[in-house]
Structure of Tellurite resistance protein B-like protein:
Amino acid sequence: MLDRLQSFFQSMMQDRPKAVFAPDDPRIAVAALCLQVMEADGVVRDAEKAKLREILKEEYGLEESDIDALIAAGQDAESEAVDYYRFTTELKRQLNEDERQHLVGILWDIVYADGSRSEMEDHAIWRVADLLGVSGRERIVQRQEAAERAGLGAIDDAT
């Protein structure tokens, strides 16, 4: 019976990527925020998932297995969080102003991966940017630049 129990637990752990990231690794907070923004409009599209993987690979130089592990760690952290504060507090402490602005740009890249943005996504990024200490002006600049990167052209509105 003990063998069957041990075999059961081992089979469950085989499906999960190895934990290669320390619980306080800021990359987990970034992944969790990206996931929260992806889920803000209630629909997570394949294009958003692909963009997240592309961003994590580009930003952190990770291999596919490490990207899987980081996304899994981000999902775990995100499922335990009640709001953005848990992630933004640490990131605000660990990142300089330019890095925080860049993170807001990354979040906009996730939003525009599917070719559009919703009011809920706007709100999510507004809250995250505010908690990170990124100004409204810089948030809009980052949004416009992300729209251009996505091939959607500059967006002029001040929201």
